[in-house]
Amino acid sequence: MIQTRPYEFMVKYTAQKEWIEGRGVLIAFAFFLGGISGGLYLVSLYFNSLPGMFLSWLIALLMGILDMAHLSKPQRFWRMALKPQTSWIARGFIFIVLFIGFVAIQLALAFWLPGTIGETMFKILAGVTAFAVAIYPGFVVSYVSAIRFWNSAIIPILFVISGVTGGLALMLAISLSDRSAQITVLANMLMVILVVHALILAVYVWSSTYAGSVARDAVMWLIRGSLAPVFWVGVVLFGIIIPLAILFATQLAGTTPVVWLLTAVASVIIGCLALRFVVLKAGIYRPLVPASSSTG
User: Tell me, what's the pLDDT at 294?
Assistant: First the structure.
């Protein structure tokens, strides 16, 4: 079992709680919303979908609210933005503010001055910050060197791919509302990105077993211990297998039944949230004084 008694911190594995328990769960939801928001905007930009852009803007607003709610002293949030040279959290805060502002201006220009140079410029700026919003949670996590399971260059890639996957799923749901001709294209793109997502997830889990004993035990906790049900059911089954099976079946049948496609969309969103949960929950601090431990 993971030991959490204060006096055992230096000699036993200790699961981090700051970002996943109590108020810390707000961070998990914020990371999830950041990936979805950034991914949805990038997909909406590709398909030139104003409803998708607006929805991504609303999601980003909710992410910002959750980030603020997590702070112990929200009135001092401005101090956080003054240290971007040393903190990915500060950079992320700046990315969120810029993204919300750029998208707001771009949407206003799309309504009053469509097709202008100004609108194009703010689409580019919003697209750049959308990617930053989607990927920065991965850097926040991967820079925690004390948690070997997190300290991986694959984490940012995994998070941004997961965000794009969720963004494609939401874009598919938006297209279903008006039976857009893009449904088939979106379904095909979602199938491809789901396969890529599965491969990157597998590489991340596999490579973590070679990152030291603490990371290897975290993987065992993830795939065999108490986190296994959330990982295999939430991340693998709902997040990858079910939507892939539905999308593949609809392609073979040559039809796009709304109920089944919405089920695939919901499964993807569940999987994206479950991924953030298990990655953050499996974070284990390495002991300062080596001692034998087991997870479960």
Answer: 46
